[in-house]
Structure formats: structure tokens, C-alpha cells
Task: structure prediction
Amino acid sequence: AQRGHGKRSSYYSDYTFGALSTNEEGEPWVVPIGKAYSGMDDEEMKRIDKYVKEHTVDRFGPVRAVTPGLVFEVAFEGIQISKRHKSGIALRFPRIHRIRWDKPWLEADTLEAVKALLP
Result:
């Protein structure tokens, strides 16, 4: 997560999101597939900001890494292969469609399921 700009500059409102995969040890992990900063109302943004502050595990300058836990439904205009991203894919114009507070992160879509959407 990263702080936003303008009226959102005091909140963590820009999010890198990912799909479920596995790490080198074969354990479940999240592989980044995009970044979004739109689609939430002010109350949702405040709730996520609180989550980020309470679950930060690492800091990289202005960026905060958090423990996996939030599940977002993400809408996007297109998907394509990308050599630039570790996941091997890139989403065009991603935005947060809905926050799934009811869904555990281990039930998020897998990277394979996302890649199956490639044309």
C-alpha cells in the first residue's frame, strides 16, 4: 500500500494486489499482478487504511507491505502477457470493484485462473 494524492494523501489508498500462488517453499503466497487506487468510497478507504497500519510487516520508503488478508474483486479492461512483471501478466486499467471482507485470502483467485483469462 502507498499513500494517495490530493484529498487521499493522508490515507493508504493506492494498492498493489495479486493472485494466489506459491512461494519457493511451496507455501501459499500472493504474486503481484497490478495496482489500483480507484473504486472505493471514503469509508472503505479509511477501513483499509486502518488495516494497512495494523498489518504492516515491512516498509520500502513510502510503500508498506502487509500480511496477506484482504481480498479485492478487481475489474479491468484487458489482460496481456508481460515480461516486465514477475507474474507474467499485466492488467489494463484495473480498479477495485468490491472489497470481500467475508472471504479469506486463501480463497482468492489463483494466478493460473487469472492467466486463463488471457486471449
Observations:
- The chain has a mean pLDDT of 92.
- The first strand starts at residue 2 and ends at 3.
